[in-house]
Every structure is written in C-alpha cells, then in structure tokens.
Please model this.
Amino acid sequence: MQAAPIRATAIPSFTDVLRTVESLLLSGGQRTARRNAWTSVMEDRRRARERAEAQRALDRSGRLPAVLP
Model:
C-alpha cells in the first residue's frame, strides 16, 4: 500500500484572508480610499514620532527653536 502524496499548499495568512473578503465586499474605489486613508494615518504617526524625537533632542540641548511652527 502506498502513502498518499503530500501536497505543499500554503495556508493563506490572516492579511490575505482579509484582503480577499475586502475585495468581495467593497468596490475598487472604496478599497483604494481605505488604503489611502490608512497610508495617511501611518504617515501622520511617523511625523509625530519625528516631532517628538526632535523635541527631546532640543530639550536635551537646553535650547529652544528660533521659530515654532
């Protein structure tokens, strides 16, 4: 008796499953808008981290910036 052949099929990741569900439920425009919004959120977070890091550097140096934004 021979053993059944083993197939190497990748199990989809949670992200892959979410994207599949998203593509079924949302139209292309909504999907693009959601992704653009998420990209904006991530950029805002990055800029906030950079501002906080710059403020900490200024605080450590004991100097204030000449012009505050």
Q: What stands out?
A: The chain has two helices and no strands. The two ends are 77 Å apart (CA to CA).
